[in-house]
């Protein structure tokens, strides 16, 4: 059993080989995949289940549906706001989190079409007309978890006005202590 290291520093082993194809398994996550033997030996393989986005996110295996790039950007921005302390618009000071299911992009991508107003968000992505934002507070006010149960898409203009109100409410709660 040959043990190698990917370019991202993750150990993997070659389980089997047939010609130029091989089956590899990453040690940390147990993820198994097929790869070209030359790419494997050069470390040019990725563990799709290794945490690689803001300390919590990983990609998983997913079909590249026509909106996957927009969904990936949405997912990354959501994780950034919740887990990147350097994000000036972030929620880290409020303790806002992302449900563990959505730490995996593949799960997020499969859940998106089930959210209210998904088609409107998608249309806004295509036409640049009415923009819709992913929102965690409309269904459950003062909610601090992004999940398939709590999120919906709302008009960007509505989301901005609600955000301004929330910031003002937080400010007045702080000065009235």
Task: Give an account of the 3D structure.
- A hairpin with a 5-residue loop joins strand 3 and strand 4.
- The protein has helices at residues 37-41, 68-83, 105-111, 118-127, 156-175, and strands at 2-5, 11-18, 21-26, 32-36, 97-98, 132-135, 145-146, 152-155.
- 18% of the residues are buried.
- Residues 167-177 have low confidence and may be disordered.
- Strands 1-2-3-4 form a four-stranded antiparallel β-sheet. A two-stranded parallel sheet has the order 5-7. A two-stranded antiparallel ribbon has the order 6-8.
- The chain contains five helices and eight strands; from the N terminus they run E-E-E-E-H-H-E-H-H-E-E-E-H.
CA-based gyration radius:
20 Å
Head-to-tail CA distance between termini: 64 Å
Structural class estimated from helices and strands:
alpha+beta
Proportion of beta-strand residues: 15-25%
Categorize the overall geometry. Answer: elongated
Count of DSSP helices? 5
Mean pLDDT: 90
Largest sheet: 4 strands, antiparallel
User: Got a strand count?
Assistant: 8
Flag low-confidence runs.
167-177
**Helix-strand string:** EEEEHHEHHEEEH
Task: For the largest sheet, list the strands in their spatial order.
Answer: 1-2-3-4
Percent of residues in helical segments? 25-40%
Chain oligomer state: single chain
